What we know:
Layout: H1 2-15, H2 24-28, E1 39-42, E2 48-57, E3 64-72, E4 75-76, E5 82-83, E6 92-94, H3 111-122
Antiparallel strand pairs: 1-2, 1-6, 2-3, 3-4, 3-5
Amino acid sequence: MATTVANRAAPNQTSKRPKRKKNLFEVAQFLPNWGLGYHMAKTHWTDVSYQITEINLYKDGRHGKAWGLVHEDGLPAADTPKKISGVHKRCWRYIPLLSKPRETTPTLMKPTENALEIEAQVA
């Protein structure tokens, strides 16, 4: 009976491998436009992230250089992009809560409301 329990447990243990962590480029490749404008951080960082502004990929697509704006507590901490260090380390994650802001689009209104507002602004 002990052998049957061991046989059942063995396939589960061999088929479940630890999840391989990803470097910044492996995370960014699945985001639109290679993650430009999106927030990423190392897994052990708390309240700090980078908003990706530029990526220089090497031919293999897994290595390269990246620049971004530092954000602390969701707010920009610097005005100019900084070269991101440790981009090849396997500890990067995408932060969906601070995702890429949508480009400003005009609010859709009914044509009559829009015409009335334009007339009010002109007068």
